[in-house]
Amino acid sequence: MTVGSDIPAKTADSDFANDNRQAATIGDAARDYLNRLRGGDMGSLPAILGLVVLFGVFTTLHDRFLTTYNMANLVIQASSIIVLAMGIVFVLLLGEIDLSAGVAGGASATIIALVMIDYDWPWWAATIAGIAAGAVIGFVIGSLVSFLGIPSFVVTLAFFLALQAVPLKLIGSGGSLRFDDSVLRGLSIKNIPVTAGWIAAGLIVVGFAALSLWRYRSRSARGLVHQPLALVVIQIVVLAAIVLGLTALLSANRAPNPNLFEISGIPRVLPVVIALLLFWTFVLTRTRFGRHLYAVGGNAEAARRAGINVTRIKISAFMICTGMAAISGLLSASYTGKVSPGSGGGNVLLYAVAAAVIGGTSLFGGRGRAMDAVIGGLVIATIPNGLGLLNQAAYINFVVTGGVLLLAASVDAISRRRRSAAGV
Amino acid sequence: MTQPLLELRGVNKSFGVVHVLHDVDFAVYPGQVTALVGDNGAGKSTLVKIIAGIYGRDTGDYLFDGEQVNVHGPRDVADLGVEVVYQDLALCDNLDIVENMFLGRELRSGIVLDDNAMEEKARETLASLSVRTVKSVRQSVASLSGGQRQTVAIAKAVLWNSKVVLLDEPTAALGVAQTRQVLDLVRRLADRGLGVVLISHNMTDVLEVADRITALYLGRVAADVFKEDVNQTQIVELITTGRSGELGIAENPATATV
């Protein structure tokens, strides 16, 4: 019985002989992790390794890849993919797919731009209108999938084709809408003040540390399953290193010609992405709705018998997905400064699906985190960024991205097989 | 004799022209394991689904604690304290034991899930059932053996202070040692004062763990007897022909008008 020595054994525990409460040492924790890897529970590890490899390759091939200027660019380029992928995670969790999310984002971005230009709506009202339009699309898709029982692949393929009409009708063929609201456009081209960036970074680190330690204390005091303290401390240190390192990187003057003008500070889009990440992580892991999402993705019949309203869960997942797609469409319009009839079409959606899957979200449902979208989105955004610097022809970009997606899907399928064999 | 916890009186059920249950009386007593036996098509599953509230009944009374109750769906039945553990275990592989046990009825403080309280209660329940085979309550259900999964499914039913637990073929897919575990657990449930219904094809299991045996034959109750009063041959006769010596249906229902 591996109960920590500081925990008084409860009376009930005497009957519950084999119950492990914690991995006793950091070594045990590492061994547990290795066992899970061998059992096929890879999580985000392949994506992190992939990111390291891509960074290594591009850094050796091009001396401007690892500059602060390019890193800030990468963050901005990745943001719209990450946000879309975060939405996609919700439908993938249910074992469904939404092929129309990209064009739904384009349609929403068109609506946002249009109401600002034609009706002089303030940026926040336009944004709410765009997200609402996205959610309505998701509601219709979710209803068709759950009430009529049409496979989501077919429903969303139909929406993928049909929704491309919206920007084309509203903008007109060959035209484009300017996207120059100072707040929304500023998300991509402006930075938050350096001091504010440091304060925010500090708050995140302190908040994470306080939350982890509080959780450790309350769980170990009540004799519940918990991680060893050393692991908690390592997690805090790693997070602090990443957050503070990124802040330091982005706070330096990164202008190509530092003597003429100054560009420094965290791009405004980054806090948006982080806020969404924290919000959806909370929803997925700490709320009843999140728990039910996983349950429906794992075994819809069991969820139904447990009294969960499967239809409601499905419709909400599609609404979250297209709502996030609207935000993603907004971010991509903010980056390019315009909305055109082709916005959100092409490979946007497939990039986002690839990002989610590369990050570790399963295509088969029941497994995935909001964080997967961030890691996977960085991998996907790094490829065109690096290849662009190397002046590679566009076709190489498609081949490499396709290859990476195929690799990620293979890792997912193989690890799923190993999971069912090892039963982890 | 004590009052039955749950009782059905004169239940009839038809699907279209097929009359599946004829005037079925069925009773579950506290602290007893009632085995429900019968051949395929005898109406066991239909009876269980009526008790579970999944099917309505055409005629007949549903009594709980001696009082007539109106049952309109699975929710009403669960509120009475009746839990059904289905044959194809209703567990989610991607969730751990605690998460499965509280699925659909998660404890919360505010809007946040109270994982600590759920883990404590799940562990207490497993311990009170003397479950010793589970490595950790935070283990994912996918990693459990058939017997352990059955144990979790049963513990899930017990967690809610239910008074009646129906087990549909709990040992059908299990090996020898695992069947042992589950039968011990079934016995312990009855010893705690619950009314347990065991639906099974396995005569050895039935004779070992049951206190009463209700045999269905072509939608009628062929016999409702104490285990001590019958032997294995008699049960098999009751299941296959509807009668055995003095026991059973007087008239052969196969030739009676349906």
TrEMBL record, chain A:
Pfam families xref list: BPD_transp_2 (PF02653)
Alphabetically ordered keywords of this record: Cell inner membrane, Cell membrane, Membrane, Sugar transport, Transmembrane, Transmembrane helix, Transport
One GO cellular component term: plasma membrane
Location(s), subcellular: Cell membrane
Principal localisation: membrane
Membrane topology: Multi-pass membrane protein
Protein name (record): Xylose transport system permease protein XylH
UniProtKB/TrEMBL annotation, chain B:
Protein's UniProt keywords contain Zinc: no
Ranges annotated as spanning the membrane: none
SMART domains: AAA
Gene3D superfamilies recorded: P-loop containing nucleotide triphosphate hydrolases (3.40.50.300)
UniProt keyword terms in alphabetical order: ATP-binding, Nucleotide-binding
Molecular-function annotations in GO: ATP binding; ATP hydrolysis activity
A Pfam match: ABC_tran
InterPro entries per record: AAA+_ATPase, ABC_carbohydrate_import_ATPase, ABC_transporter-like_ATP-bd, P-loop_NTPase
Domain of life: Bacteria
The keyword Nucleotide-binding is annotated on this UniProt entry: yes
CDD domains, sorted: ABC_Carb_Monos_I (cd03216)
The protein's name: D-xylose transport system ATP-binding protein
Originating species: Nocardioides lianchengensis
